[in-house]
Amino acid sequence: MGLRDLFRRSPPSAPPAPTERRFHQDRARMFDLAGTGVLAQLFAMPADERDRAWQESFFDLAWTASVAFAEPQTFIGPDGFPYLRLDLPHPGPFDSQCLGNVAGDCLAHGVGAALFASPDDPPERPQYVLSFGLIDSLVRFDSPWGDPIDIEEASLPDAPGAFDVEERASGRTMIVKEAHEVLVGAPSADFLPPYAARALAAHLEQVWGLEDPRVQLIADMQMRPHRSLVIGRKRGEFPEGAPTDEMARMLLWYLTPLRNVMLMPEDWTPNQMTPLRTLY
Questions:
Q1: Within a domain: residue 148?
Q2: How far apart are CA 167 and CA 174, in angstroms?
Q3: Would you call 248 helix, strand, or coil by DSSP?
Q4: CA separation, residue 124 to residues 121, 195, 229 (Å)
Q5: Residues 73-101 pLDDT 10s
Q6: Contact, 64 vs 29, CB < 8 A?
Q7: How do residues 101-123 score in pLDDT, each as one tens digit?
Q8: Could you say which of 78, 110, 141, 151 has the lowest number of CB atoms within 10 Å?
Q9: Beta strand 183-185 with 214-219: parallel, antiparallel or unpaired?
Q10: Structural domain containing residue 134
Q11: Per the domain annotation, does 113 fall within a domain?
Q12: What CA–CA distances, in Å, run from 94 to 103, 123, 184?
Protein backbone atom coordinates (compact mmCIF):
# COMPACT_ATOMS: atom_id res chain seq x y z
CA MET A 1 0.00 0.00 0.00
CA GLY A 2 3.00 2.29 0.21
CA LEU A 3 2.98 5.30 2.50
CA ARG A 4 0.54 5.05 5.40
CA ASP A 5 -0.40 7.80 7.77
CA LEU A 6 -1.32 6.32 11.12
CA PHE A 7 -2.49 8.03 14.27
CA ARG A 8 -2.73 5.98 17.43
CA ARG A 9 -2.75 6.04 21.20
CA SER A 10 -0.01 4.40 23.21
CA PRO A 11 -1.11 1.08 24.80
CA PRO A 12 -1.53 1.02 28.58
CA SER A 13 -0.78 -2.00 30.69
CA ALA A 14 -3.98 -3.97 31.05
CA PRO A 15 -5.54 -4.35 34.51
CA PRO A 16 -6.79 -7.77 35.67
CA ALA A 17 -10.14 -8.81 34.24
CA PRO A 18 -12.99 -8.04 36.67
CA THR A 19 -15.24 -10.80 37.92
CA GLU A 20 -18.36 -8.64 37.60
CA ARG A 21 -19.23 -5.46 35.78
CA ARG A 22 -17.29 -2.53 37.14
CA PHE A 23 -19.26 0.07 35.17
CA HIS A 24 -22.71 -1.32 35.79
CA GLN A 25 -26.25 -0.05 35.30
CA ASP A 26 -27.49 -0.91 38.80
CA ARG A 27 -29.19 2.30 39.92
CA ALA A 28 -29.39 0.99 43.49
CA ARG A 29 -25.60 1.41 43.65
CA MET A 30 -25.52 4.82 41.97
CA PHE A 31 -25.77 8.36 43.40
CA ASP A 32 -23.26 7.56 46.13
CA LEU A 33 -22.73 10.54 48.45
CA ALA A 34 -19.87 8.82 50.30
CA GLY A 35 -18.10 8.42 46.96
CA THR A 36 -18.49 12.14 46.35
CA GLY A 37 -16.43 12.92 49.44
CA VAL A 38 -13.68 10.50 48.47
CA LEU A 39 -13.67 11.90 44.92
CA ALA A 40 -13.13 15.36 46.40
CA GLN A 41 -10.07 14.00 48.23
CA LEU A 42 -8.72 12.59 44.98
CA PHE A 43 -9.22 15.92 43.22
CA ALA A 44 -7.21 17.63 45.98
CA MET A 45 -4.11 15.68 44.90
CA PRO A 46 -1.79 17.70 42.61
CA ALA A 47 -2.04 16.73 38.96
CA ASP A 48 1.61 15.72 38.72
CA GLU A 49 1.11 13.14 41.48
CA ARG A 50 -1.81 11.36 39.84
CA ASP A 51 -0.39 8.00 38.81
CA ARG A 52 -2.03 4.83 37.51
CA ALA A 53 -3.26 3.95 41.01
CA TRP A 54 -4.92 7.37 41.18
CA GLN A 55 -6.64 6.70 37.87
CA GLU A 56 -7.94 3.34 39.03
CA SER A 57 -9.32 4.92 42.22
CA PHE A 58 -10.90 7.67 40.15
CA PHE A 59 -12.71 5.26 37.87
CA ASP A 60 -13.90 3.17 40.83
CA LEU A 61 -15.56 6.29 42.26
CA ALA A 62 -16.54 8.47 39.30
CA TRP A 63 -19.09 6.08 37.82
CA THR A 64 -21.42 6.14 40.85
CA ALA A 65 -20.45 9.17 42.96
CA SER A 66 -23.14 11.83 43.28
CA VAL A 67 -22.46 14.93 41.22
CA ALA A 68 -24.53 17.88 40.05
CA PHE A 69 -25.39 19.20 36.61
CA ALA A 70 -24.21 22.68 35.75
CA GLU A 71 -26.27 25.31 33.98
CA PRO A 72 -25.88 25.20 31.03
CA GLN A 73 -25.28 21.48 31.16
CA THR A 74 -22.81 21.29 28.27
CA PHE A 75 -19.87 23.41 27.14
CA ILE A 76 -17.24 23.39 24.41
CA GLY A 77 -13.83 22.44 25.79
CA PRO A 78 -10.50 23.97 24.77
CA ASP A 79 -10.07 21.03 22.39
CA GLY A 80 -13.22 22.07 20.49
CA PHE A 81 -15.32 19.10 21.59
CA PRO A 82 -18.62 19.23 23.53
CA TYR A 83 -18.74 18.01 27.12
CA LEU A 84 -21.39 17.41 29.74
CA ARG A 85 -20.27 19.27 32.86
CA LEU A 86 -20.52 17.35 36.15
CA ASP A 87 -19.63 19.24 39.35
CA LEU A 88 -18.92 18.12 42.87
CA PRO A 89 -21.68 20.07 44.63
CA HIS A 90 -21.50 22.79 47.24
CA PRO A 91 -22.67 21.71 50.73
CA GLY A 92 -26.46 21.58 50.96
CA PRO A 93 -29.33 20.10 48.95
CA PHE A 94 -28.77 19.39 45.23
CA ASP A 95 -30.26 17.28 42.45
CA SER A 96 -28.06 14.20 42.45
CA GLN A 97 -26.68 12.75 39.23
CA CYS A 98 -23.81 10.41 38.41
CA LEU A 99 -21.74 9.51 35.40
CA GLY A 100 -23.11 5.98 35.18
CA ASN A 101 -26.65 7.33 34.89
CA VAL A 102 -25.88 9.72 32.02
CA ALA A 103 -23.22 7.79 30.07
CA GLY A 104 -25.77 6.46 27.59
CA ASP A 105 -27.13 9.97 27.02
CA CYS A 106 -23.59 11.22 26.31
CA LEU A 107 -23.19 8.61 23.60
CA ALA A 108 -26.62 9.32 22.14
CA HIS A 109 -25.88 13.05 21.90
CA GLY A 110 -22.23 12.87 20.83
CA VAL A 111 -20.68 14.51 23.90
CA GLY A 112 -17.95 13.65 26.38
CA ALA A 113 -18.02 14.35 30.11
CA ALA A 114 -15.87 16.58 32.32
CA LEU A 115 -15.76 16.42 36.11
CA PHE A 116 -15.02 19.52 38.17
CA ALA A 117 -14.08 19.90 41.83
CA SER A 118 -16.52 22.79 42.29
CA PRO A 119 -19.35 24.55 40.45
CA ASP A 120 -17.17 27.68 40.69
CA ASP A 121 -14.29 26.26 38.63
CA PRO A 122 -13.92 27.71 35.11
CA PRO A 123 -14.34 25.44 32.05
CA GLU A 124 -10.58 25.28 31.50
CA ARG A 125 -10.02 23.66 34.94
CA PRO A 126 -11.66 20.21 34.87
CA GLN A 127 -10.29 17.55 37.16
CA TYR A 128 -10.84 14.76 34.64
CA VAL A 129 -12.08 14.72 31.05
CA LEU A 130 -13.66 11.68 29.43
CA SER A 131 -13.79 11.63 25.66
CA PHE A 132 -16.74 10.16 23.76
CA GLY A 133 -14.63 7.09 22.96
CA LEU A 134 -13.60 6.61 26.59
CA ILE A 135 -17.23 6.65 27.71
CA ASP A 136 -18.00 4.14 24.96
CA SER A 137 -15.25 1.90 26.34
CA LEU A 138 -16.71 2.06 29.86
CA VAL A 139 -20.18 1.18 28.60
CA ARG A 140 -19.33 -1.56 26.10
CA PHE A 141 -16.10 -3.08 27.37
CA ASP A 142 -16.45 -2.37 31.11
CA SER A 143 -12.98 -0.85 31.02
CA PRO A 144 -11.32 2.54 30.54
CA TRP A 145 -8.52 0.84 28.57
CA GLY A 146 -10.43 -0.25 25.46
CA ASP A 147 -11.51 -3.40 23.65
CA PRO A 148 -9.82 -6.53 25.12
CA ILE A 149 -8.99 -7.59 21.55
CA ASP A 150 -7.08 -4.35 20.94
CA ILE A 151 -5.34 -4.58 24.32
CA GLU A 152 -4.13 -8.10 23.57
CA GLU A 153 -2.96 -7.21 20.06
CA ALA A 154 -1.22 -4.03 21.23
CA SER A 155 0.83 -6.09 23.68
CA LEU A 156 2.26 -8.32 20.94
CA PRO A 157 5.89 -7.76 19.94
CA ASP A 158 6.37 -5.59 16.87
CA ALA A 159 6.54 -7.42 13.56
CA PRO A 160 10.23 -7.37 12.67
CA GLY A 161 11.10 -5.48 9.51
CA ALA A 162 7.50 -4.84 8.47
CA PHE A 163 7.64 -1.03 8.47
CA ASP A 164 9.92 1.95 8.60
CA VAL A 165 8.47 4.27 11.24
CA GLU A 166 8.76 8.04 11.64
CA GLU A 167 7.51 9.18 15.05
CA ARG A 168 5.85 12.58 15.43
CA ALA A 169 4.08 14.31 18.28
CA SER A 170 0.66 13.76 16.68
CA GLY A 171 1.19 10.24 15.39
CA ARG A 172 3.45 8.23 13.18
CA THR A 173 4.13 7.69 9.49
CA MET A 174 4.66 4.05 8.57
CA ILE A 175 6.21 2.98 5.28
CA VAL A 176 5.69 -0.62 4.24
CA LYS A 177 9.06 -2.31 3.71
CA GLU A 178 7.76 -5.64 2.46
CA ALA A 179 4.49 -6.27 0.62
CA HIS A 180 2.02 -8.33 2.60
CA GLU A 181 -1.68 -9.10 2.54
CA VAL A 182 -4.25 -7.07 4.45
CA LEU A 183 -8.00 -7.45 4.84
CA VAL A 184 -10.31 -4.58 3.93
CA GLY A 185 -14.02 -4.27 4.63
CA ALA A 186 -16.80 -2.22 6.16
CA PRO A 187 -16.50 -1.58 9.92
CA SER A 188 -18.76 -3.75 12.03
CA ALA A 189 -21.11 -2.33 14.63
CA ASP A 190 -18.78 -3.78 17.27
CA PHE A 191 -15.87 -1.72 15.96
CA LEU A 192 -17.93 1.40 15.15
CA PRO A 193 -21.38 1.33 16.76
CA PRO A 194 -24.14 3.41 15.18
CA TYR A 195 -23.96 6.27 17.69
CA ALA A 196 -20.20 6.58 17.12
CA ALA A 197 -20.65 6.47 13.34
CA ARG A 198 -23.24 9.25 13.58
CA ALA A 199 -21.03 11.45 15.76
CA LEU A 200 -17.98 10.86 13.55
CA ALA A 201 -19.98 11.65 10.41
CA ALA A 202 -21.16 14.95 11.91
CA HIS A 203 -17.56 15.92 12.68
CA LEU A 204 -16.34 15.06 9.19
CA GLU A 205 -19.19 17.02 7.64
CA GLN A 206 -18.94 20.10 9.86
CA VAL A 207 -15.19 20.30 10.47
CA TRP A 208 -13.67 18.61 7.45
CA GLY A 209 -16.36 19.78 5.03
CA LEU A 210 -17.04 16.32 3.57
CA GLU A 211 -20.44 16.01 1.91
CA ASP A 212 -20.49 12.21 2.00
CA PRO A 213 -17.99 11.05 4.65
CA ARG A 214 -16.78 7.52 4.10
CA VAL A 215 -14.69 5.04 6.07
CA GLN A 216 -13.29 1.56 5.74
CA LEU A 217 -11.73 -0.97 8.08
CA ILE A 218 -8.31 -2.41 7.37
CA ALA A 219 -6.92 -5.41 9.25
CA ASP A 220 -3.17 -5.82 8.99
CA MET A 221 -1.69 -8.64 11.06
CA GLN A 222 1.64 -6.79 11.10
CA MET A 223 0.07 -3.82 12.91
CA ARG A 224 -0.31 -3.44 16.68
CA PRO A 225 -3.27 -3.60 17.19
CA HIS A 226 -4.30 -5.12 13.86
CA ARG A 227 -7.35 -3.00 12.97
CA SER A 228 -7.38 0.61 11.76
CA LEU A 229 -10.21 2.87 10.65
CA VAL A 230 -9.48 4.44 7.27
CA ILE A 231 -10.96 7.93 6.76
CA GLY A 232 -12.15 8.73 3.24
CA ARG A 233 -9.83 11.61 2.49
CA LYS A 234 -6.31 11.49 1.07
CA ARG A 235 -3.43 13.49 2.47
CA GLY A 236 -3.00 15.10 -0.94
CA GLU A 237 -6.57 16.46 -0.81
CA PHE A 238 -5.93 18.72 2.19
CA PRO A 239 -5.09 22.37 1.49
CA GLU A 240 -1.42 23.25 1.65
CA GLY A 241 -0.46 24.14 5.21
CA ALA A 242 -3.50 22.45 6.76
CA PRO A 243 -2.81 20.80 10.16
CA THR A 244 -3.54 17.40 8.62
CA ASP A 245 -1.91 15.31 11.33
CA GLU A 246 -3.70 17.15 14.12
CA MET A 247 -7.06 16.94 12.31
CA ALA A 248 -6.67 13.19 11.92
CA ARG A 249 -5.48 12.72 15.51
CA MET A 250 -8.56 14.52 16.83
CA LEU A 251 -10.78 11.80 15.36
CA LEU A 252 -9.49 9.46 18.07
CA TRP A 253 -11.81 11.36 20.43
CA TYR A 254 -14.69 9.36 18.93
CA LEU A 255 -12.99 5.96 19.21
CA THR A 256 -12.29 3.69 22.15
CA PRO A 257 -8.70 3.67 23.48
CA LEU A 258 -6.07 1.96 21.32
CA ARG A 259 -8.11 2.33 18.13
CA ASN A 260 -6.18 3.70 15.15
CA VAL A 261 -7.14 5.98 12.28
CA MET A 262 -5.37 6.47 8.98
CA LEU A 263 -5.98 8.57 5.91
CA MET A 264 -7.15 7.00 2.67
CA PRO A 265 -4.22 5.70 0.59
CA GLU A 266 -3.51 7.76 -2.52
CA ASP A 267 -4.30 4.81 -4.81
CA TRP A 268 -7.80 4.26 -3.37
CA THR A 269 -11.02 5.78 -4.73
CA PRO A 270 -14.11 6.85 -2.74
CA ASN A 271 -16.24 4.06 -4.19
CA GLN A 272 -14.02 1.61 -2.30
CA MET A 273 -15.18 3.16 0.96
CA THR A 274 -18.30 2.67 3.08
CA PRO A 275 -20.60 5.71 3.48
CA LEU A 276 -20.86 6.49 7.19
CA ARG A 277 -24.57 7.17 6.78
CA THR A 278 -25.13 3.44 6.13
CA LEU A 279 -23.71 2.57 9.54
CA TYR A 280 -26.34 4.35 11.66
A1: no
A2: 9
A3: helix
A4: 8, 27, 31
A5: 999 999 999 999 999 999 999 999 999 99
A6: yes
A7: 999 999 999 999 999 999 999 99
A8: 78
A9: antiparallel
A10: 27-141
A11: yes
A12: 20, 20, 51
